[in-house]
């Protein structure tokens, strides 16, 4: 009796493990497809930035995508070189509670995973897992890439509002 019970439990655990693997792989594929247009626009922005174009111009195509929130540039020590670049007017206005974070110029993002990953692999776009943004208290994914700009290593960053696609469709 104990043998068949153990075998049944093993089968059940195996089935649950397989279902989890399939669901996880499907979610990863969906996220990769969702992220792809942002990554392409971001790679192009990095190329243009490295070629000497100004930050506020290179980010336009990225920021024109539906959930792109902002771009910003960090120096090799993680310090933000200028203000956040936003395209849409609704991004420029802030709720009162977030006003202290509106001007991030001079902020140090050295400890952030998106900065550290970009510095570790220059020239390759990095993407964070979704996390809670301090800018708007929304789930966010940050893209980052370390590039040379005028002989200095910089990290271009771009935030994407990562609102659950299924929840947004049902809302």
Describe this structure in words.
A hairpin with a 6-residue loop joins strand 3 and strand 4. This protein is 46% helix and 19% strand. Strands 1, 2, 3, 4 and 5 form a five-stranded antiparallel beta sheet that branches. It has 171 residues and is α+β, with helices and mostly antiparallel strands. The N and C termini lie far apart (50 Å). The longest helix has 49 residues. About 4% of the residues have low confidence. It contains seven helices and five strands, in the order αααβαααββββα. It has a single domain, classed as Beta-Lactamase, CATH 3.30.450.20. InterPro entries: Sensor-like_sf.
Structure in a nutshell:
With 171 residues, the protein is of the alpha+beta class. The chain has helices at residues 2-50, 55-58, 60-63, 89-92, 99-102, 113-120, 165-170; strands at 68-75, 126-127, 131-132, 139-149, 152-161.
State the shape: elongated
Instruction: Provide the β-strand percentage band.
Output: 15-25%
The CATH fourth-level homologous superfamily: PAS domain
Top-tier CATH class = Alpha Beta
Topology pattern, helix = H, strand = E: HHHEHHHEEEEH
Report the structural category. Answer: alpha+beta
Mean pLDDT equals 85
- The unreliable regions are 94-100
CATH architecture: 2-Layer Sandwich
Measured distance between first and last alpha carbons:
50 Å
CATH topology: Beta-Lactamase
Report on the biggest sheet: 5 strands, antiparallel
Number of strands: 5
């Amino acid at each position: 009796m104990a043998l068949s019970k153990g075998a049944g439990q093993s089968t059940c655990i195996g089935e649950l493990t397989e279902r989890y693997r399939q669901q996880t792989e499907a979610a990863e594929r969906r996220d990769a497809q969702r992220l792809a247009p942002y990554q392409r626009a971001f790679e192009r922005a990095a190329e243009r930035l490295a070629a000497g174009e100004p930050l506020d111009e290179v980010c336009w195509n990225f920021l024109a995508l539906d959930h792109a929130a902002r771009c910003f540039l960090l120096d090799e020590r993680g310090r933000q070189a200028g203000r956040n670049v936003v395209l849409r007017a609704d991004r420029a206005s802030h709720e009162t509670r977030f006003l202290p974070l509106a001007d991030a110029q001079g902020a140090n993002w050295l400890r952030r995973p998106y900065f550290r990953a970009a510095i570790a692999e220059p020239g390759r776009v990095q993407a964070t897992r979704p996390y809670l943004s301090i800018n708007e208290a929304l789930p966010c994914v940050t893209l980052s890439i370390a590039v040379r700009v005028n002989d200095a290593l910089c990290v271009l960053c771009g935030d994407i509002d990562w609102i659950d696609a299924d929840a947004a469709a049902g809302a």
